[in-house]
Amino acid sequence: MIISGRYSRARCSHPTLFHRRNVYSTRSRRTMGTATGPVRFGPYEVTTQVFLTTPHSFAVVNLKPLLPGHVLVCPHKPHRRLTDMSGAEVSDLFATVQRVQHMLARHYFGRPPATGQRQTSSSSPSSSSSLVTDLAAETVPKAKASPDDGSFNIAIQDGVDAGQTVPHVHVHVIPRIPGQTAKDGSTIGDVIYEDMAGEKGNVGGALWDREKDIAVSGAAGRSGRPEPGGAFDRIEDVDRAARSMAEMEEEAGVFRELLARMEREG
């Protein structure tokens, strides 16, 4: 009920965000391009790296992309947690994520499969940055592709213990390009999540290094540098027993009662 009300109010305030045919309306086009004023991602200014702004959000290229096309979508206000955001801000944030997905799909998914070495987030830094540069340079896709022509990882590290290294809500949008950066089908898990929680995905640490002009390999003067975290312990599927229906129904009942109590309390 509460969520539905917020959704309705947000829809009335920002109708172009909820109607696919109006996504690229005149009003929306005016929000594209380089931001006109300073844009900050946490304590760091990223104005020149911003490629899309909306009434409540902005999208920015990533200093440490795990894979080609890995970008971030953030609210303009430096909210630390997703639950700090208003309904209108949340609606705008995820509408912007969808818009960025469509753009990235047009750029990356309409290409024939690449020949040569398959790219993963664990490839060497030089090969990773080379592929990012090569693919980004191809400004004309081979076909008008849609998100259905590939896949995406969409992730939020909500809080320090979840691996957040910049105290500003940000959504990771990572295209998985068929034949190039898609998940390795021969593996059970996806290494992208491990890398996101490690130094490879430590965007806060990389921004800190750039701000302080300190090389990643340097040890001096690194006190206060954001550290990665939030990785899950490795658990093999054989060790993860499925719960019984009774256990799941009991938990669902606890959550229903808690939500009802929260609604009564306002």
From TrEMBL:
Keyword Hydrolase: yes
Key word Nucleotide-binding present: yes
Residues the UniProt record annotates as site (Important for induction of apoptosis): Y193
HIT domain sequence ranges: 37-183
Catalytic activity: P(1),P(3)-bis(5'-adenosyl) triphosphate + H2O = AMP + ADP + 2 H(+)
Entry EC number(s): 3.6.1.29
Top-level EC class: hydrolase
Organism (species): Microdochium bolleyi
GO MF annotation list: bis(5'-adenosyl)-triphosphatase activity; nucleotide binding
Motif (Histidine triad motif): 168-172
Cofactor (UniProt): Mn(2+)
Active site: H170 (tele-amp-histidine intermediate)
Keywords in alphabetical order: Hydrolase, Nucleotide-binding
UniProt feature, compositional bias: Low complexity: 121-130
Gene3D superfamilies xref list: HIT-like (3.30.428.10)
Annotated substrate binding sites: N62, Q157, G163, Q164, T165, V166, H172
Protein name in the entry: Bis(5'-adenosyl)-triphosphatase
Stretches for region Disordered: 110-134
